[in-house]
Amino acid sequence: MTKQKIIIVGAGPGGLTAGMLLANKGFEVEIIEKENKVGGRCSSITADGFRFDIGPTFLMLKPILDEVFEAVGEQTETYMDFYDLDPMYHLVFKDQSIKLSRDHNKTREEIKTKFPGEEKGFDRLLEREGKRYKVAYPCLQKNYSRFYMMFNRDLFKFIPKLSFPNSMHKELGRYFKNENLKMAFTFQSKYLGMSPWDCPAAFMIIPYIEHNYGIQHVKGGLAEISEAMKQVFLKKGGKLSLNQEIIDIKENEVTLKDGQVLKADKIVINADVGYALKHLLKKKDLKNRQFSCSTFMLYLGIDEELDLEHHTVFFSDDYKAYVDSIFKNKELIDDISFYVRNASKTDPTLAPAGKTNLYVLVPVPNNKSEIDWDKIKGEYRDKVIKKIEDRTGVKISDKIITERIITPKDWEEKHNVFLGATFNLAHSLNQMLYFRPHNQLSKSIFLVGGGTHPGSGLATIYESARITAKLIADKLAD
């Protein structure tokens, strides 16, 4: 009997996960990737002995990744070395800072020292958000490609715990009074590309997940997950075609840039959903939907070792004004917040001896702003470097020996990210579950990745692939 053929468009985390699962089921699976390596935004940049992750910089909910590997008879530890990060973050405000740990006693003591009287709020948060997470996660593991699928027992149990219409920021008022402390437990809305004043309170499960399960670094960088998945996919009999760009998708066929037309029983799209709908499927674009912010990225090789934590978030003096500048006014202001990863402190494989690998992320408006990044890129880069020097007290401008920049325009034009919105469609309630682009788009075309259910972030992207792979396996088994 001829094996049923599945083509996967793109070798990002979702495509690789779906590829592993489907190849393990015995299907003939081919992943077609336009770049010369796997990973998409979960790949890396190498230069002058430095290795920089392009996108994700830590792993949340490692048990999900473990389950994906176990489902195909493998173990993550066979392919990767993991480090638990402690502290998880160093959060720096205008007038104080705080280090957060997965160790609840350490975090409780840190809160007690820095924000006296607020420590009991941390215990309330863990208890209440733990209950929310327990009923929320089963809802995220389901398929919502048909409206009637919304009517399930797990979702009905979760609805009372949505805290609608509260935002994450308002919900934090249940636990803390201090504004800096509220920011320490709502900045995670950045992972969803949303303002904490708009991000639904239901996403308070994210800080809970961090504090309950911790966050991990992978030796060699997060791109090693993609490389490990590639190895497993090939081991299970999958075929990987690099340097091949797909320019058109129709039912049961894809067209390559060189003119080849390939047939398949099912097609899985792992491209950015906005880009895929507009450019590959030739459907109406999603510009009228709400999208996340974008990011201005600096990847810096520094010619000395810097004393910074693995993860540091520097908050602007007026964080609300900064957030509004991104999401409401769509403009650039001087009072920025930014994130710096000093991964070489934990993992010396990422930089030559005696040097530092710095990853800098600045949330900025997506390309609906019409900011001319070609014109201002250099000036904005200098402002960010100056901010890093002012906030850390370390002069790095004359110590940079290698540098790469990605602007929102680069995200859109070089990485095929619609509107440069690096966290994809916003995670408002009217763009979740059934109301998000479906895991199954048509009879033979399916989606995986941050633009479909359940949403962006590595763990949820793995879940999207598990949902889609099960849908396909069940249909092809009929």
Overview of this structure, please?
It is a single chain. With 478 residues, the chain is an alpha/beta fold. It folds into 3 domains: 5-83 and 220-289 and 425-477, FAD/NAD(P)-binding domain, CATH 3.50.50; 104-212, no CATH class; 293-418, no CATH class. It has 15 helices and 20 strands. Strands 8-7-16-17-18-15-19 form a 7-stranded mixed beta sheet. It has a 5-stranded parallel beta sheet with strand order 10-2-1-14-20, with helices on one face. A 3-stranded antiparallel beta sheet has the order 5-9-6. Strand 7 (89-92) and strand 8 form a beta hairpin. The longest helix is centred in the first third of the chain and has 22 residues, at 119-140. The protein is globular. The two termini are 15 Å apart.
Summed up:
The protein has 3 domains: 202 residues, FAD/NAD(P)-binding domain, CATH 3.50.50; 109 residues, no CATH class; 126 residues, no CATH class.
List the helices and strands and how they pair.
Blueprint: E1 5-9, H1 13-24, E2 28-32, E3 44-47, E4 50-53, E5 59-60, H2 62-71, H3 76-79, E6 82-84, E7 89-92, E8 97-100, H4 104-114, H5 119-140, H6 153-158, H7 168-172, H8 179-184, H9 205-213, E9 215-218, H10 223-235, E10 239-241, E11 246-250, E12 253-256, E13 261-263, E14 266-269, H11 273-280, E15 294-302, E16 311-314, H12 319-327, E17 338-342, E18 356-364, H13 373-392, E19 400-406, H14 408-413, E20 445-447, H15 458-477
